[in-house]
């Protein structure tokens, strides 16, 4: 079996940590009203969660572009999602059935996490299902056609939404993941001829611009509600600074020389599990209520405690998922193969 490249696995870990940190800022008990340095701090730690989302998708797409399509991967992702959803439901049902977090709506979401819960998994599975068709298109486009397609999509899905509130041509999370797939395919198959110095300038420049925009819009919001309403406008996944930060970091990490590090690869194998655990519809409510990010009143404490708590959540969820792998991974892999073979038999493919 070919060993995973630890540069991408480390990047996967970084991307999921950014997502956890993002959730610390947006899912807590803090009420975003008027200006406060506490609010600025929480907005700052929230700023790069979508960079994490973009990178996570780019990594997967980068390798899928030149791979044979495997139904097993789709079923494995689906089974892992169902596993955590049903385990959480079982735990709360038998030990804390009266929990305020276990509402009827949440129970329905736990029973049907796909498609009712986990927007990321929904969009990711959609991308996986379309990947063989995307690959046919990618490998039949000329470079000039490919550049034109990406340029057009970048204009309508990145540039225009960065300078306006418009969502054009059916933009959605599903469409965005396909855009990232196309971008990853281009980076996989063509040399972009961008120096590391230029990539570092793009990355640190876009990060700096994002942080300044978030801080300045908050500060200007003290006297004008219009700016406060747009305090986090530029941190979404298709805003230009976030896109530049995502692509430049991905390209930089592509050339990290880490070989195959067993520790990094093991930790990285739990990244999806980290997401499925901490962003479960019930766990999310219980976790961030218990954390209570509203208790940290200053800029420094909001940022500092956010990083520490996100690290603690990440480590805890990683340990849980590694235990799942120890006891259930072989069974889930076996089920994935059986389901994939059954699907091929039904559709004669």
Mind explaining what this structure looks like?
The chain has 349 residues and is mainly alpha-helical. The chain has one domain. The chain contains 16 helices and no strands. α8 crosses α9. The longest helix is centred in the C-terminal third of the chain and has 49 residues. The radius of gyration is 21 Å and the shape is globular. 38% of the residues are buried. The mean pLDDT is 93.
Task: Briefly say what this structure is.
With 349 residues, the protein is mostly helical.
Protein traits:
349 residues; mainly alpha; 16 helices
Major β-sheet annotation: none
Enumerate how many helices there are, as a single number.
Answer: 16
The whole-number mean of residue pLDDT values reads 93
* Unreliable sequence segments: none
The assigned structural class equals: mainly alpha
> What's the number of structural domains?
1
Which strand-content bin applies to the residues?
under 5%
How much helicity do the residues have?
over 70%
**Overall outline:** globular
Whole-angstrom Rg? 21 Å
Number of strands: 0
Distance between the termini: 25 Å
């Amino acid at each position: 079996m070919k060993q995973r490249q630890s540069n991408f696995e480390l990047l996967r870990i970084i991307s999921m940590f950014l997502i956890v940190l993002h959730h610390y800022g947006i899912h807590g008990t803090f009420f975003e009203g008027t200006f406060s340095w506490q609010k600025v701090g929480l907005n700052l730690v929230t700023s790069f969660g979508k960079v994490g989302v973009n990178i996570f998708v780019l990594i997967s797409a980068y390798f899928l572009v030149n791979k044979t399509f495997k139904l097993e991967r789709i079923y494995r992702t689906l089974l892992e999602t169902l596993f955590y959803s049903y385990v959480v439901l079982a735990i709360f049902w038998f030990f804390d059935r009266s929990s305020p977090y276990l509402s009827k709506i949440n129970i329905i979401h736990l029973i049907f996490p796909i498609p009712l819960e986990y927007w990321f998994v929904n969009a990711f599975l959609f991308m996986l299902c379309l990947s063989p068709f995307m690959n046919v298109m990618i490998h039949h486009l000329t470079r000039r056609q490919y550049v034109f397609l990406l340029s057009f999509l970048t204009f309508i899905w990145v540039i225009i939404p960065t300078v306006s509130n418009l969502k054009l041509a059916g933009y959605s999370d599903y469409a965005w993941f396909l855009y990232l797939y196309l971008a990853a395919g281009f980076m996989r198959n063509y040399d972009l001829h961008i120096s590391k110095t230029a990539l570092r300038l793009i990355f640190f420049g876009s990060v700096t611009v994002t942080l300044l925009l978030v801080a300045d819009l908050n500060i200007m919001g003290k006297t004008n509600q219009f700016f406060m309403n747009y305090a986090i406008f530029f941190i979404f996944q298709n805003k230009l600074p976030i896109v530049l930060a995502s692509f430049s970091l991905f390209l930089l990490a592509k050339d990290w020389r880490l070989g195959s590090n067993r520790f990094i690869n093991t930790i990285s194998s739990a990244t999806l599990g980290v997401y499925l655990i901490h962003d479960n519809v019930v766990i999310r409510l219980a976790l961030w209520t218990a954390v209570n990010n509203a208790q940290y009143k200053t800029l420094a404490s909001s940022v500092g405690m956010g990083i520490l708590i996100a690290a603690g959540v990440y480590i805890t969820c990683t340990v849980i998922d590694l235990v799942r792998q120890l006891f259930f991974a072989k069974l889930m892999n076996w089920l994935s193969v059986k389901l994939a073979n059954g699907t091929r038999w039904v559709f004669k493919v």
